[in-house]
Amino acid sequence: MSTILTSEAQEQLNHIRHSRDVVHAYSPAIQKLFNLVIDYVDDAEKAGQGGKKVIWAGVPWAMPLIYSTGAIPVAFSELGRISGQEAITISEDHYQMPAETCSMVKATAGEWYLRKQAGSSITRIFGSSSACEPYNLAWEVMKKEGFDVYTSDVVYRAPGVEGGRYEELVQYFVDEIREFNEWLTGTREIDKDSLHLEITRKNYLMRRIREIMDLRLNHPFYVKSLGIMYLLNGLTHYFGKPEEYTEVLDSLVEELSLLEANEADRRRAIPLIWTGGSGQEFGIYDAIDNAGGALLGFVSSPYAKDYNEDIDPVESLARFQLESQMAGASIYRRHVIEQQIDKIGARGLILYGYLGCSFGSVTREMYREYFHNKGIPSINLEGTFQVGPPSGQILTRIRAFIEMLS
Ligand code: SF4
């Protein structure tokens, strides 16, 4: 099936095309990136129709493993880009989800329903349990709807878990990884050679991202906010096309390396760090660009350090997750934010979350206070997971925030 877009989602698609053809007209690498974005879900559907194993996957740690089995993961985040009010209405009316339920839960569940009705070839869902009660309910709803749903336990390493306790946690997680492999392939035996190759690939791509982020310090406006957001999102799932995504990063490094140093841009840019998920209200990114902000730091996708290629690859997968900012406790992300503040000379933080997410709002408030006490201002933004225009109030707040920093 080809995705039939609502008018809001079509507008969003036009936004991406405009960014590709006009805003980034000078960059073949970013143009190629946006082509990957645009084709991701439709091409995955086609691959599914052609007999390839394709799953909806909302669990970042699993992506190298999924690719190592030959399957294609379709990240939940891309469901947001193609879903709109219709999906929300399905969740509220058909599934009777309360209006105040998080927009991510409503948008994904509603979109899965709509796609199933339209004959989607993707009928398996891999999500995580325990972290989020609304999503746990959504999994049950999706099972009743006929989807094959598998959920892994939440990855959480409490602060202070070291030594023997940490090793037990690693073994617990390794066991979970094998269970997931069984759901995906029918066996707990993992193809370690293939997984090793995927880990090597991921390390290469993270090094490329580090190079790009370093080069952007001298060319902060070359890749605009929407572009860098998708570049970083792609580091998790490669848009279903690892080789093409690799080409994008290679070409972008080359483009940035050939540029003359631009001192005026460097002085004009207001370095910012984005924390939290990616907003689908693309107008937010335009507002940042237009106000002179440059998103030079991110904490959602880990790219600061490599997987260990010298140990068992399954264990390497577990240790990478448990030793990165994705290990659950907000203190891990806070460390990464602090490192990035120093590295890019950040003047402010954008703390972004989805409407209706109580977990996120508590974390953002903790960050706000912690960094405020360190003299780093932040702005707390809440948006929708599904597409839609940002409210005028959000845009005004962003403009005012960046003006205050300049
Ligand atoms: S944004 Fe929050 S409430 Fe929504 S799915 Fe994620 S954790 Fe759950």
From TrEMBL:
<protein>
    <recommendedName>
        <fullName>2-hydroxyglutaryl-CoA dehydratase</fullName>
    </recommendedName>
</protein>
<comment type="similarity">
    <text>Belongs to the FldB/FldC dehydratase alpha/beta subunit family.</text>
</comment>
<dbReference type="InterPro" id="IPR010327">
    <property type="entry name" value="FldB/FldC_alpha/beta"/>
</dbReference>
<dbReference type="GO" id="GO:0016836">
    <property type="term" value="F:hydro-lyase activity"/>
</dbReference>
<dbReference type="Pfam" id="PF06050">
    <property type="entry name" value="HGD-D"/>
</dbReference>
